[in-house]
Write a structure and sequence with these properties.
The complex is a heterodimer of chains A (116) and B (109). Chain A is mainly beta and 116 residues long. In chain A, 0% of the residues lie in helices and 54% in strands. Chain A is built from no helices and eleven strands. In chain A, strands 2, 4, 5, 6, 9, 10 and 11 form a seven-stranded mixed sheet that branches. A four-stranded antiparallel sheet of chain A has the order 1-3-8-7, with no helix packed on it. In chain A, 33% of the residues are buried. With 109 residues, chain B is mainly β. In chain B, β7 and β8 form a beta hairpin. The chains are: A mainly beta (116), B mainly beta (109). At the A-B interface, β9 and β10 of A face β4, β5 and β9 of B.
Chain lengths: 116, 109
């Protein structure tokens, strides 16, 4: 149980384009989903927290207009990197929690983004 | 002071030895504590969680919690090369889950 999927697993795009990443909880309803970014050999960095049906809460320093998050249902959250630039190249990982932020988080497999 | 602190390592142990990973946290009101393992290039996977003071054992893994000292540790017995990974400590306090930077463990054959 507690399986989280992400799609795509990797993406290569040109600078200036937008990329959408999907995160799905497959066998549970996720009231809260989290988006992280991880650069090589660095720790996880929380970008934003999203609750179903409400606006995402972004961490300090994360541009909400650049990283659009939509949590349209209890099993799906999307992250759209708008006008991607090479410095946005990173490993994007989502996680989902069945009981809000006060419970275990289950991670998706991650999406590796390379912006040329 | 960081909310969750871990020694970044690397921690190197020989195969078969006990690996001891440590974590301290700043929020005295924290209630839930987690250990995740992250292999290089992969996302974190949950190993164990612990809520009460004392030890919790699961196979070769033992989590130890001391709320008075604000300290949580993970012991890996009979370490195997396949245990080589980064181990993330995570804590839920008054807010959402917060992660430590991780400790890189290398188990040498």
């Amino acid at each position: 149980g507690a399986v989280v999927s992400q799609h795509p697993s990797w993406v290569i795009c040109k600078s200036g384009t937008s990329v959408k990443i999907e995160c799905r909880s497959l066998d549970f309803q996720a009231t809260t989903m989290f988006w992280y970014r991880q650069f090589p050999k660095q720790s996880l960095m929380l970008m934003a927290t999203s609750n179903e049906g409400s606006k995402a809460t972004y961490e300090q320093g994360v541009e909400k207009d650049k990283f659009l998050i939509n949590h349209a249902s209890l099993t799906l959250s999307t992250l759209t990197v708008t006008s991607a630039h090479p410095e946005d190249s990173s490993f994007y990982i989502c996680s989902a929690s069945p009981a809000g932020g006060q419970e275990t988080q289950y991670f998706g497999p991650g999406t590796r983004l390379l912006v040329l | 002071q960081k909310e969750v602190e871990q020694n970044s390592g690397p921690l190197s142990v020989p195969e078969g030895a006990i690996a001891s990973l440590n974590c301290t946290y700043s929020d005295r009101g924290s209630q839930s504590f987690f250990w995740y393992r992250q292999y290089s290039g992969k996302s974190p996977e949950l190993i164990m969680f612990i809520y009460s003071n004392g030890d919790k054992e699961d196979g070769r893994f033992t989590a130890q919690l001391n709320k008075a000292s604000q300290y949580v540790s993970l012991l890996i017995r009979d370490s195997q090369p396949s245990d080589s990974a980064t181990y993330l400590c995570a804590v839920i306090g008054r807010g959402d889950m917060r992660f430590g930077a991780g400790t890189r463990l290398t188990v040498k054959p």
